[in-house]
Amino acid sequence: MKLLPAAQVKPNEVLAQPIYSDNGQVLLQAGVTLTERLLSRLNNKGITYIYVEDKRTEDIEVTSPLNPQTRVEAMQTIKEQFQVAAEVPNKNPMFNRDVSPAWNQAFGNVVEKVMEDLQNSEEALSLLSDAFAYDSYIFTHSLNVTMYTLRLAMAHGYNRQELRAIGMGAILHDIGKMQLKPEVLHKTGKLDDHEFEHIKKHPEMGFLMLKDQPNISLLTAHCAYQHHERLNGSGYPRGIAEEAIHPYAKILAVADVFDAVTSNRVYRKAMLPHEGMEILYAGVGELFDDRLVDTFSRIIALYPNGMMVTLTDGREAVVVSQNGEMTSRPNVRVLTDEASRSLDTPYDLNLLENPSILIQASAPVG
């Protein structure tokens, strides 16, 4: 199979991986021939990348970091409990008493299951393999950031109790957005200055919502409060600098930005993983902790299995598998020669063993 941007998939291609709704229902089964009408529906549902069948790459394996049931339960919990936050004003004196036990148990269960799935997965993390249609960016983003945050924290040796607190902070980091004006939060066009200032209130709103809940850690509340702060003091809402930012929030900042730029939005196309990493690298030392960014680059599949790429010598290839933490040097299957002529017999090439050959760009191959 090969991975293509949904916009570049042509009619009559055959779907290689099923596509699900966020409640776990199969929208399209693997093996379905894609028509213009089906491709249009997938685009409307926000599907950005699709695996399609290709005889030259039919042996490529793609695995999701989460068990499908874990993902379905996580999304249901996030949607249900975030809706509570939208409907119950945090100034209500009964708010904390009413929701705290439910949130602690519901989100705690999700974090535990996500941790277990991630600990059982040795592959570099890639979410492009997960073809799920969602009805709200904030729900998807909350789960994705939780996965990225936990995997990064695991790589830095945090213990289980710490991971749970970090995971709770990640899954609830944007809970304050549920208190924003819906017309601003869901605006499809560019925000004006006044609207952006309103959006920038969500970290403090989330902090105020979480800080007094007896069963929610104060560190979890500070993750919501500080995830937009930056090392050089240029972040918000308080503009605090490196030493004042909690380590958990520094981890969350990396995960939050990466998922934001690699997710499809109405006003912007999603970047590919290696492009998202370039954004993080550009902010090293000024915005993001250099050790965290370096670690993140080694746990993320910069070039996911099935992705079509162009090598520096002009040959076109597809990523077959990863090489551990050397995520920029995967194993590839070469499909063309240097002049882009298709090969009768494609062959595999280990980029780790060929240091003079680099991936120049991601490039869909016909």
From TrEMBL:
CDD domains membership: HDc
Protein name (record): HD-GYP domain-containing protein (C-di-GMP phosphodiesterase class II)
PANTHER family: CYCLIC DI-GMP PHOSPHODIESTERASE PA4108, CYCLIC DI-GMP PHOSPHODIESTERASE PA4108-RELATED
Source organism, top-level taxon: Bacteria
Pfam (any one): HD_5
Gene3D superfamilies cross-referenced by the UniProt entry: Hypothetical protein af1432
InterPro entries: HD/PDEase_dom (IPR003607), HD_GYP_dom (IPR037522)
Location of the HD-GYP domain: 116-312
